[in-house]
Design brief:
9 helices, metal-binding, zinc, RGAP1 protein, two-stranded antiparallel sheet, Rho_GTPase_activation_prot, Wheat Germ Agglutinin (Isolectin 2), domain 1, single chain
């Protein structure tokens, strides 16, 4: 395993460097120890095992702008309310079982989300947000625009790179664009908190694979290795854009971004 993914049988994450079993027909991925519990035939997976691959971002977005899923708004609001004094925000992992439980709870709740204030460890809330974004069918920057984001970030001249990135961001589907803007403003606030000790470089390393990902659902091992440093570069460049640019997408309807 190069890119950590959840086991299709037990749901726990299969970590980097571990050996796993993958079905060449239905792409089911599982721990070697979970092989005995695996269904013998390729069948549609039960709903409670399918939570990491729930849909594209637009499937979760509200009908009125800004088109940011309630789960994202609620997690970010909770993190900003009580997490900006925590060292290693988004880098320190939350308890895996609690992250899975809360993500499942939030996804099943639909619109009326349970309060995250009862989650004692703020790192669990961070984990839910990262896991939700990581579990989408395609990354926030989308498969089709992935190469354009990489090319824009690779432009040596900062001003030209910024212009190219603004152009590519504007091409994103509305829900992806609004959510990206909302997250960038949030991550900028995290980077500016001296207590978090999470500067732009640290945050780009954490969120590069999550937000940028790859240009297909099943990248080759070579593509994964080549993409990783460029993913971080894209997020670092996006975080270098002025907050006013991002507020242009979510600022005017900010009052709608209130957790349910």
């Amino acid at each position: 395993v190069i890119r950590p993914e959840p086991c299709g049988v037990c749901g726990s994450r299969i970590r980097f460097g571990k050996t796993a079993i993958k079905c060449c027909q239905c792409q089911l991925l599982l721990h070697t120890k979970c092989r005995e519990q695996c269904p013998s035939l390729c069948v549609p997976r039960p709903h409670h095992h399918a939570w990491p691959r729930e849909g594209v971002l637009a499937d979760f977005a509200p009908s009125t702008p800004p088109l940011v899923p309630a789960l994202v708004v609620q997690c970010v609001t909770e993190v900003e309310t009580r997490g900006l004094t925590e060292t290693g925000l988004y880098r320190v992992p939350g308890a895996e079982q609690l992250v899975r439980e809360w993500k499942r709870k939030l996804l099943r709740a639909g619109g009326a989300l349970p309060a995250l204030s009862s989650v004692t460890d703020i790192h669990v809330v961070c984990g839910v947000l990262k896991d939700f974004l990581r579990g989408l069918k395609e990354p926030l920057v989308t498969f089709s625009l992935h190469p354009a984001f990489l090319r824009a970030a690779d432009i040596p001249d900062d001003a030209a790179s910024d212009t190219a990135l603004r152009h590519v961001v504007s091409k994103l589907p509305p829900a992806n664009r609004d959510t990206l803007a909302f997250l960038m403003l949030h991550l900028l606030r995290v980077s500016q908190s001296p207590d978090c000790k999470m500067d732009v470089l640290n945050l780009s390393r954490v969120f590069g694979p999550t937000l940028v990902g790859h240009s297909s659902a099943n990248p080759t091992p070579l593509a994964i290795m080549e993409d990783t440093p460029r993913q971080c570069k894209v997020v670092a460049r996006l975080l270098s854009l002025p907050p006013s640019f991002w507020r242009g997408f979510v600022g005017t309807e900010q009052e709608n971004l209130v957790p349910v």
